[in-house]
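Morning F.,

Quick status update on the modeling queue. The single chain you submitted on Monday has been processed. Sequence for confirmation:
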Amino acid sequence: MAKSEFTKKDANAVATEYGLPKVNNVKQIESELESGCSDFLIETTRGKFVAELDSRKSELELKREHDLVLFLRKQGFPSRAPQADRRGRHFQDFGGKNLSIYRRIDGHVLNSDSVSAGQLENVGRVLAELHLVTKAYKKGGENHFSFDRVAELYDSVRGRLPSYMRKIVRTLDEELDYLENYLEMKLPKGTIHGDVRPSRLLVKGDKVVALLHFEIAGRGKFILDLATAVNSLCFSGGNYDLKRFESLIAGYESLRTLSLAEWDAFPNELRFSAFRFTIARLNDFFESSVEARQQINKDVQDFYERLLILRREKDGGMESMLMAMATGYDYRKYQKVKAVERRTR
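Structure tokens below.
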């Protein structure tokens, strides 16, 4: 049976294995990590570390994740990298779970209720930086975000949905048919995070000090990664917030300019992202404990609500975002032309 706690005695044994200083205290970190994963703060005489216990990932999945984040750290990207033990291993078995040790990064999880324009700009910039620096990374894992994989997951979930969800099933069926015909596949691709949301972001002031949890990172469309961030960070109080959207996009485009094809595909990628997470959370419902199902039900409703707004079946700020997308590319070109005109006067 997998071990579910991590004591001071455990931490001192691990500290010896990893060559860490003497442990003064250990406490569990409250977080939004999925079932099967727990984080513990290890306070030593010389600094703080985080122990992550994970029973979800296979050794191969963990090796792939560690390989990517170690590459990112070498490029100076703001992420956390696993410490190596005395034998050079970046994780080890601990009571049936995989144990990884990270140096604690000074910062706090992004608060989506009070996120600032500066924080959103920096999230956009960090996401663009990820898409640029991983051009040199040639070990991208399997695509977790393809339409075919999501459609296959929906097929496995659909038959288990209760009859009272008949209306939701009808909407999801329609959305699946729509996306199959209108998703654009020939867009810029590379390594994407795939799950940018507040619990994955550590900030200090406006600065993003770390993008965390690359377990589902893989090769995919850059615009889908951005759309996922928009759905997570630019939706507040049942509405899409145009100012949040503009701040996030401004940060992203300060490093990587979106193509006209990406702007055109943006609305459908938002829909696909909302559809994908609705299906994923429905699947989680059937695989989770009774205690976890209440939160999962809320998550399903939250993503389904986004989908209804993106389908323009419900008011929620989508019209202003569509206008911003429709004019974003032309406006940026206009700004470049005016800048050239000013330089040549």
